[in-house]
Amino acid sequence: MNLKRIGLDTSKAVFTLHGVGQDEKAVLRRNMRRAEMETFFAKLPPTHVALEACGGSHHWGRRLAAMRHTVQLIPPQYVKRRGSDPGYTRNVESLGWRGSGHFWCNP
User: Fold this and answer.
1) Are residues 72 and 79 in contact, defined by beta-carbon separation less than 8 angstroms?
2) Domain residues for 15?
3) How many other β-carbons are positioned within 10 Å of the β-carbon of residue 54?
4) Residue 51 burial by CB count (10 A; 0-12/13-18/19+): exposed, middle or buried?
């Protein structure tokens, strides 16, 4: 799978991933359990991963950075969530692309 960027929404049990390829088209839309996360990301080549900054994202940011992925934590005030919006992860992914100097990389 040739991914350029992945947006990751962390939660207690099920994580949501949205990834785009080199042509900026969505190639990955997937819900994944916590146990599957490390195996999935370990198989990927180094990729840019954007997460909303929260308690759990710092842990996952360190784990992903150890796997040589570039991790970007986005402050919650930049991410707009509307209820259980399925486009939320896409918004996180696109903010990772458009991000300015306000965001942190590799925690």
Assistant:
1) no
2) 5-105
3) 16
4) buried
**CB-based burial label for 57 (10 Å; 0-12, 13-18, 19+):** buried
Domain count, the chain: 1
One digit per residue, pLDDT tens: the chain, 107 residues?
688 889 888 878 888 888 888 888 888 889 999 889 899 999 999 999 988 888 888 889 999 999 999 998 888 777 766 555 556 556 665 666 555 444 444 44
- What residues are paired with 51 via a beta bridge? 8, 73
Give the global pTM.
Answer: 0.77
CATH of the domain at 42: 3.30.420.40
